Amino acid sequence: MKSLERHLTIRIWIVVVCLASVAPLAAQRGQGRQGGASARASAPVDLTGMWVSIVTEDWRWRMRTPPKGDYASLPLTDAAVKAADSWDPARDAAAGEQCRPFGGAAIMRVPGRIRISWNDDTTIKVETEAGTQTRAFAFGSAQAAEPSWQGVSVANWQVAGGGGRRSGGPPRGGSLRVVTTNLRPGYLRRNGVPYSANARVTENYNRVNEPNGDSWLIVTTMVEDPQYLAQTFVTSSNFKKEADGSKWAPAACRVS
User: Fold this and answer.
1) Among 94, 213, 217, 220, who pairs with 204 as Cys (CB 3.0-4.6 Å)?
2) Which DSSP helix (H) or strand (E) runs through 55?
3) What angle do CA 223, 202, 247 make, to 5 degrees?
4) What is the pTM (predicted TM-score) of this model?
5) CA-CA distance, 89 to 130, in Å (whole number)?
6) Tell me: the pLDDT tens digits for 169-199?
7) Degrees (nearest 5) of the Cα angle 191, 232, 230?
8) Using an 8 Å Cβ cutoff, are 25 and 94 in contact?
9) Domains of the chain
10) pLDDT digit string (tens) for 126-141?
């Protein structure tokens, strides 16, 4: 496990460094298109399929509900600490707020499987086992809506070298960038650590293919929230590609 963790940590840093030199795919021309092709047709990388989270770090916060007051490694404001100290799971359950730990700012850190597919040529759909959530990543723009657990997400391709497909050839390597706003207030951790309705979530989805045939999805998440975070909170979550959906088992939101 330590060897795997070191291996993935190195790859995460490589991905983060590479993202700094990656260019947007023509800003999708406001329509999720590149040279007339749809976002789906111009994709520089295939993210579709079934992926399972591999937890190699933050075990005590991700694999169980940490006790109230365990806020280590989080850059919380005083207001956040005060809110977290008042966390009451029974109150959440009574108010129908069981999905607070499964909102868009934290869902990729919750262990389980995700299923990625195309809803249409300009929208990627991400379904989660944890909390039975569905996220929609719209290329170009997204319709305004009432605040929700998964908010409104706008996506664009990031292409290595700033180009799209080579003429007559396969696409260059790249990744997906997603910006999510319009969220309902939720929890960054299951023990009541809050994020507010003003939170802004930026994610980068990068696929890494191993020589042995394994494929990894590295999701780098950056949460900004001036009300509850003193600085940007950054995490990287690792997922391994599965051959099929035979182990898919969605579970409803729960408070503990």
Assistant:
1) 220
2) none
3) 95
4) 0.85
5) 17
6) 444 689 999 999 999 999 999 999 999 999 9
7) 75
8) no
9) 2-252 (2.40.128.20)
10) 999 999 999 999 999 8
